[in-house]
Design goal:
This protein has one helix at 163-167; strands spanning 12-18, 24-31, 35-39, 42-50, 77-84, 101-109, 111-115, 120-124, 128-132, 137-139, 146-154. With 171 residues, the chain is an all-beta fold. The protein has a single domain (35-167), classed as Jelly Rolls (Sandwich). The strands form three sheets. The chain has a six-stranded antiparallel sheet, with no helix packed on it. It has a three-stranded antiparallel sheet with strand order 8-7-10, with no helix packed on it. The longest helix has 5 residues, at 163-167. It starts with 11 loop residues before the first strand and ends with a helix.
């Protein structure tokens, strides 16, 4: 069972924009509030999303307030903060999955082990992963929470075995 009473991470989000005269201004300055709890060990916070490239930076929509599934919008991006608590999830076997995305993940603090089909690698603060649609799982085998930021970029090909198809998320 997912514990939705977890402490929400305090992630300050400063979003810039333009005033009526075209001058640069701070549009949003506050803690991000769009949190998800995909399992008992993880909190994911959407920071921003886009619908495609090139992205329109003149909209008045808060790209961090959207309700999205795991993947970004079609041809878009999903920028998120996540915190993974130490220990295994559920039955103790890493949850292998893949999405039809290219992911850029930066480890901010703690450490996490990324499991692949036939190998694993432990990542520490400052390490960066570029995941290209590969089957993987995340397990925090350390003693403290692992904090990271990730940008998911919609990619091709589309596979029926992706996590999107498995959980029935809308594209």
């Amino acid at each position: 069972m997912v514990d939705t009473n977890k402490r929400d991470p305090k992630v300050r989000r400063v979003v810039t924009g333009h005033d009526a005269n075209g001058k640069s201004v701070v549009w949003i300055d506050g803690f991000a509030t769009n949190h998800k709890y995909p399992n008992e060990k993880m909190i994911s916070t959407l920071l921003w999303s886009t619908d495609g490239a090139p992205a329109n930076f003149m909209t008045d929509e808060d790209g961090g307030a959207r309700i999205l599934g795991t993947a970004p919008p079609p041809e878009g991006t999903r920028f998120m903060f996540s915190e993974l608590q130490p220990g295994q999830i559920g039955d103790g076997w890493p949850h292998m999955h893949h999405t039809d995305t290219i992911d850029y993940k930066v480890i901010i603090s703690g450490e996490v082990t990324m499991y692949l089909d036939d190998s694993k690698v432990t990542l520490k603060a400052g390490d960066i992963v570029i995941s290209r649609g590969t089957n993987h799982a995340w397990v925090n085998e350390g003693a403290i929470p692992c904090r990271s930021v990730t940008v998911l970029v919609d990619a091709i090909p589309k596979r029926s075995s992706s996590v999107i198809s498995k959980v029935g998320e809308k594209r």
